Fold this protein.
Amino acid sequence: MAKSSSLTTGDLALLRPFWEEPVHREVLPNGATLIVRQDRSAPLASVQIWVKTGSVHEDTLQGSGVSHYLEHLLFKGTERRAGREISATVQAHGGMINAYTTFDRTVYYIDLPSEHVGIAVDLLADMVLHSTLPADEVAREKDVILREIDMVKDDPDQRLGETLFATAFRSHPYRFPVIGHREVFSSLTREDLVAYYRARYVPNNLVIVVVGDVDPAAVRAFAHLLSTQFLWQDRVAHRPLSTPFWPEWDVKECAVRLDLARAGWRNLLRGLDSAALDTTIRYVNTKGSYYTSTVGDVISHALFHGAHHRGQVAAALRAAGAEPPTTDFIHAVRTGVLRPGGD
C-alpha cells in the first residue's frame, strides 16, 4: 500500500508543473473564448478552433451526421478563399491542417512555424465562419461520406463499437454514430447544412486556442482585431440545445444483434443487466484449469478471441447456474439468471 501511495504522490508531483503553467483566457468582444499558452521549447505553434457542437447537438437532424458532413465542407472554400487555396496557403507556410468531429465538439487545427501564427488564426476563422458550402462540393462530399459509412460497416471493430453505444445509451444522443446512419445522412440537403452551420457556428460557441512559441499580447491584439472589425457580425448568439446532462445506463429489456463479421457470429443478447455481468463465477480454460472472474469479463474475452472459446463460455455459464448456450454463441443473458459463484 505504501508503494502505491508513493507512486501516486510522484505522479501528482510530475503533473503539477503543467497545471501551474500560466494560461491566458478571455472572452472576446464578439463572445468567442480565446485561450493562449506560451511555450518556447520549439519555434512552432498550434492554432485550433474548437466548435462546441457535435453529433449530440444535431437536434431535429439527430442521427444524420450533419456535424461530420459540415466539417468536410469547411475545407471547400470561403468568401475570400477558394478551396484549394486553403491547403496551399498552409503548406506554403510549412504547416499542416486537419479537423475532426466527435460526439460533442468539432475541432479545426493548423500546426506550423510560430512566425506564421497570424496567418493560421485568420485562415481558420475565415473557414469556420465564412465558408460558402458550394453546391457541387456538397454533392461530391456526400458520395465520399457514403463510402466512409460503407467502410465502417465492413469493419467488425467499428460495428461492435456502434452496437455498444446503441445498446448502452437507449435515449441519449450517444446512441447515434458520429458519422450518421446511412438512410438519414442520405436525406440531408444543402439547406440542412446551411441552417445547422448558421445556428451552431456562432461566436459564443467557439473556443480559439493558440499554443506555442508566440507572444500572447500580440495574439490577443490580433484576435481582438478580427472579432471587432469584420468577422461574425451576422451571427446571433447560440442557445444551448436541450440534451440529457449525462448518458444514462439503461439496457434492460434491450435486444440487439451483434454482427461480428470477423468470426461469422450472429449473437442475440437480451436484457443485459450490469449486476448480472458483475457476478463472480468460476472460469474454465481449455486446459481444464479454473479461474475466478466475472461473467462480463468471460463474455468480453470470448468476443475478442474467437469461436474456439465457446466451450469456456459454456462452462462458465453452467458454473453460474445459467442455461448452456445454443446457436453459435450465448443464447441469452437475462436479469437474475446468473447466480453468485466462485471462491
